């Protein structure tokens, strides 16, 4: 764990002890498209985010957690899967996800994405149809952009339409990179 994260935990987490396993494991993993903030609960991966580590920590502590801290034993399996994915050796993540940072509507949208296979895409319209909300295109797009578990829940596989990629939490360049990595278009 970087000294910055350790200092952040000491200052912002009133229950930080620095010993014993935390309720929520928290750390950073590097990727070819930038650092990812990773957090893991007992239920699964809570965060795999391109957002600033301070913002992610604040969001988790406000909405979910009590004791947040380093726990390589819980973070390393996720990091290994992320590394394998970026190396082209992993097509589907096996680590469970914990979508409690997502709204109920966003959870529905994100759960649909887990069925979109590697090397394929779907559209916002197709997702809206599948969840029974065919006119909710903008809401679907918003749910995708705020996905708290990017890369692992493959929101990059959802495109706006045949000619438009749409937004992505990590930016359009990151979305293009991920689709190229998977051999899409």
Structure description:
With 185 residues, the chain is an alpha/beta fold. It has helices at residues 3-12, 53-63, 72-86, 104-113, 124-130, 137-145, 172-181; strands at residues 24-29, 36-40, 45-49, 68-69, 122-123, 158-159. It has two domains: 3-86, Double Stranded RNA Binding Domain (2-Layer Sandwich); 104-181, Arc Repressor Mutant, subunit A (Orthogonal Bundle). β1 and β2 form a beta hairpin. α4 (104-113) packs across α6 (137-145) and α5 packs across α6.
CATH topology name of the largest domain: Double Stranded RNA Binding Domain
Indicate the multimeric state.
single chain
CATH class of the largest domain: Alpha Beta
Please state roughly what percent of the residues sit in beta strands, choosing from under 5%, 5-15%, 15-25%, 25-35%, 35-45% or over 45%: 5-15%
Estimated structural class: alpha/beta
Question: Sheet with the most strands?
Answer: 4 strands, mixed
Strand elements, count: 6
Spans of at least 5 consecutive residues with low confidence: none
Give the number of helices: 7
Order of helices and strands: HEEEHEHHEHHEH
Number of domains: 2
Helix proportion? 25-40%
Short description:
This protein has helices at residues 3-12, 53-63, 72-86, 104-113, 124-130, 137-145, 172-181, and strands at residues 24-29, 36-40, 45-49, 68-69, 122-123, 158-159. By secondary structure, the chain is α/β, with parallel strands linked by helices.
């Amino acid at each position: 764990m970087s000294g910055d994260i350790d200092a952040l935990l000491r200052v912002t987490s009133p229950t930080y002890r620095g010993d014993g396993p935390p309720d929520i494991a928290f750390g950073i993993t590097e990727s070819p498209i930038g650092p990812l903030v990773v957090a893991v609960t007992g239920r699964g991966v809570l965060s795999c985010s391109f957002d600033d580590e301070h913002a992610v920590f604040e969001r988790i502590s406000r909405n979910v957690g009590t004791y947040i801290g380093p726990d390589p034993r819980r973070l390393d399996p996720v990091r290994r899967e992320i590394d394998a994915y970026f190396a082209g050796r992993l097509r589907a993540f096996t680590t469970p996800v914990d979508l409690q940072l997502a709204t109920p509507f966003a959870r529905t949208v994100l759960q649909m994405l887990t069925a979109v296979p590697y090397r394929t895409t779907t559209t916002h319209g197709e997702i809206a149809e599948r969840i029974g909300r065919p006119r909710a295109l903008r809401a679907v797009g918003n749910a995708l952009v705020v996905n708290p578990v990017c890369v692992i829940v493959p929101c990059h596989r959802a495109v706006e339409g045949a000619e438009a990629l749409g937004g992505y939490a990590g930016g359009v360049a990151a979305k293009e990179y991920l689709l190229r990595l998977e051999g899409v278009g």
